[in-house]
Design a protein that fits this description.
Low-confidence stretches: none
Shape: elongated
Number of helices: 3
Amino acid sequence: MIAVDHTGFSVASLEDAIQFWTEAMGFDLARRGEMGGEFLREATGVDDPRCRMALVTAPNGYPVELLEYSTGRTLGQTPRSAGAIGTAHIAFTVRDIRTAIARVERAGWAVKGSPQPIPAGPRCGTMVAYISGPDGITIELMQPPVQHYRIV
């Protein structure tokens, strides 16, 4: 392993996903395209893998790939529980967790619990909250603690 390249999510509606990631999460739409055929079938193991895609990038440049497979609705959906075996999440650092939550709720996503500070360890005081959208994608929002400096 040499690096993490991107994170990808299968979505029910590419247009709705682009709107969420750009408007609610503040990402930029980098590109759109279509894929399919023998290459994609062999690479993914998905039969008849016609796919529309978009790449959105975080303010720091990290890419998230959004994939709308033509057969996606027939293939099942991710479990709704963040604790289900095989469920994944992606975490983003935010300046103000309550403002971020309000923004994603306006976009139709739901908070899975309530914002909580990490009680101990190297990330003690970091506020975290999990949100979930209509495609079962789970996102963790993390607000680092405000650093207090003692002036001597």
